[in-house]
Design goal:
Helix content: under 10%
CATH class: Mainly Beta
Distance between the termini: 54 Å
Order of helices and strands: HEEEEEEEEEEEEEEEEE
Radius of gyration: 19 Å
Strand content: over 45%
Largest sheet: 17 strands, mixed
Number of domains: 1
CATH architecture: Sandwich
Number of helices: 1
Number of strands: 17
């Protein structure tokens, strides 16, 4: 082995160590999650930072958008397991009705297979997409047959507290969405049942992300944080 080969080997080993050190997993709500490593990427051409995801002393999950060294940073994580049909539930703590117009919270299924990119995603998102006059709740189903085709139902809501629950139930031909005040199923905010032949039949991980629309800084110039107290899946 020549000196150049040795140099490349050491460089490769160093890069491997850097990637290994960057990788971060955690156990939350009975699932193993992989936290997205630091770096630029979609959606929104954002900078993602693994330190923006952490568990507190009560085992609750925190997601943060923070300005660090003059750069706005976002958060994302996903389960190492994939799931298909069943009920997905997310218990959130935070004033989702008061998120900045450029801030997005996503609770969703997304396919990881390269051939499935852009197909079959199922979203619960809290965002105004840069426009303070739009509804802040969004339920979306992306076609599993035609890339880029989706149907969204948006709805406005106001909170008096910080606890909300958000569910979707996948079947072979439908996705039924519900949002609730509080962490029970007693006080409904909104519901929507999507039916069609293009609902995804692909097992997908559960994703959580907290990011900036089009990579735009929060219009109020402030950091943001959301807590997820529980994620559940019932086949």
């Amino acid at each position: 082995m020549n000196h150049l080969s040795k140099a490349f080997l050491m460089l490769g080993f160093g890069l491997f160590l850097a990637v290994a050190a960057e990788a971060k997993t955690l156990i939350f709500s009975g699932f193993e999650w992989t936290v997205r490593g630091s770096g630029y990427g979609a959606p929104g051409k954002n900078y993602w930072r693994s330190d923006n995801v952490w568990l507190d002393e009560l085992g609750r999950l925190h997601l943060a958008i923070r300005k660090i060294d003059g750069k706005w940073t976002c958060a994302e994580l996903s389960t190492t397991r994939k799931f298909l049909y069943g009920k997905y539930s997310f218990k959130v703590i935070g004033r989702l009705d008061q998120l900045d117009r450029n801030v997005v919270l996503g609770l969703f299924n997304y396919p990881v297979e390269p051939a499935k990119q852009g197909l079959g995603e199922i979203d619960i998102e809290f965002a105004r997409w840069g426009n303070p006059g739009t509804g802040n709740g969004n339920f979306t189903v992306w076609s599993d047959k035609v890339a880029g085709r989706s149907v969204t139902k948006s709805f406005p809501f106001d909170l008096t507290g910080t606890y909300t629950r958000h569910d979707f139930t996948r079947t072979a031909q439908s996705v039924f969405f519900q949002s609730f005040y509080g962490h029970t199923e007693k006080n409904e905010i909104f519901r929507w049942n999507y039916t069609g032949t293009d609902v995804s039949a692909t097992p997908m991980p559960i994703y959580l992300n907290f990011w900036l629309f089009r990579g735009l800084a929060p219009s109020d110039g402030r950091d943001a944080e959301i807590v997820v107290s529980e994620v559940s899946y019932l086949p």
